[in-house]
Design goal:
Oligomer: single chain
Strand content: over 45%
Radius of gyration: 15 Å
Helix content: under 10%
Largest sheet: 11 strands, parallel
Shape: globular
Number of strands: 20
Distance between the termini: 34 Å
Number of helices: 0
């Protein structure tokens, strides 16, 4: 996989090409791990995992984490499976005082045979933001978007899905048992729910 470091800016224009990856490891894996400012556009990226590690680790086409600012537009991001915890985009806060911001713009398609996008609010005093804009499509065979509170001290988060976006698969808001606060904002346009998602 490729890691984009903090403080680095990259516009990855695929120019109609496809990047295809194979995940052969047993731990967590991102084909691209973004900690900087990354824009991916004009093509396709796919990933297939060879090992099913259940809930022990994730596999994602793009892991946006620890200060990462990700924008995808006019591109298809697809996880083809092989494991549970398979994501097109995994937006992970991953620590204290960090942020992870992801924007799915017009023309982008994010798909997975599991959950297309995960927002993992696994930080303290951190911020996790996901915006799905008009003209984009998010499709998960299990869930389209999963906003996950992993502990009693989950960080703040916001999920915004605009009118004109398309969500195929339920939106799953998961709160850990015993969590005493869940400081999130959720705004989903009803028109975006393409198959009676909840």
């Amino acid at each position: 996989g490729l890691t984009l470091a903090n403080g680095t800016t990259l516009v990855l224009d695929l120019n109609g090409k496809t990047i295809t990856g194979t995940d052969t490891i047993t731990g967590s894996f991102g084909l691209i791990t973004n900690k900087g400012d990354l824009t991916v556009k004009n093509g396709k990226m796919t990933l297939k995992a060879e090992n099913n590690r259940g809930w022990d680790a994730y596999s994602s086409v793009i892991s946006n984490t620890v200060g990462g600012n990700l924008v995808v537009e006019n591109v298809t991001i697809e996880h083809l499976g092989g494991t549970d915890m398979a994501y097109g985009i995994d937006n992970l806060t991953n620590g204290k005082g960090t942020s992870a911001v992801a924007t799915v713009n017009d023309g982008a398609v994010v798909k997975s045979c599991y959950r297309a996008i995960r927002q993992f609010l696994n930080g303290i005093e951190a911020t996790n933001k996901l915006t799905v804009r008009a003209g984009s499509k998010v499709e998960g065979a299990n869930k389209s978007i999963w906003m996950q509170d992993p502990s009693a001290n989950a960080n703040t988060g916001s999920l915004t899905v605009e009118d004109g976006a398309q969500l195929y698969g339920d939106v799953y808001l998961y709160v850990t048992e015993g969590s005493y606060r869940w400081p999130v904002e959720v705004s989903i346009a009803s028109s975006a729910l393409m198959n009676n998602s909840t």
